[in-house]
TrEMBL record:
Signal peptide: 1-20
Keywords: Signal
Protein name: DUF4890 domain-containing protein
Length: 110
C-alpha cells in the first residue's frame, strides 16, 4: 500500500513539473509562430519558403538566446550576435527572392 501511495505522489510531482515546463515554453513558441505568419503574409511566401524560413528563424533564435544569456562582455556579445544575424540573413537569402529579401530587411529594421 505504501508503494502505491509513493508511486502516485511521484507521478503527480512528475506531471506538475512537465506541465510547468510546457507553460514556460509556450510564449516563446507562440511569439515565433506569429512572427513567421506575419512574414509569410507580408512577403507572400510559398509553403516551401515558409517552412524553410520557420526552420531558419527557430534554429537561430535558440543560438541568439543562448548568446544573450551568456556571461560574455558586451562588445564580444554584440560581435557574436552580429555574426549570427549575418549567417541567419545569408540562410534566409537562399530561400527568398531578391524582392522578398529586401522587404524582409526593411521589416526587421523597423
Amino acid at each position: 500500500m505504501k508503494s502505491i501511495v509513493t508511486l502516485a505522489i511521484v507521478a503527480f510531482l512528475g506531471m506538475t513539473t512537465v506541465q510547468a515546463q510546457k507553460v514556460a515554453n509556450a510564449p516563446v513558441q507562440k511569439e515565433q509562430v506569429s512572427q513567421i505568419d506575419m512574414l509569410a503574409q507580408k512577403l507572400n511566401l510559398t509553403a516551401e519558403q515558409k517552412a524553410n524560413v520557420a526552420k531558419t528563424l527557430t534554429g537561430f533564435k535558440a543560438t541568439e538566446d543562448r548568446l544573450k544569456a551568456s556571461n560574455m562582455n558586451a562588445t564580444d556579445k554584440q560581435a557574436a550576435l552580429d555574426k549570427v544575424a549575418s549567417r541567419k540573413n545569408g540562410n534566409l537569402k537562399t530561400y527568398l527572392t531578391d524582392e522578398q529579401y529586401a522587404m524582409y530587411v526593411k521589416l526587421t529594421q523597423l
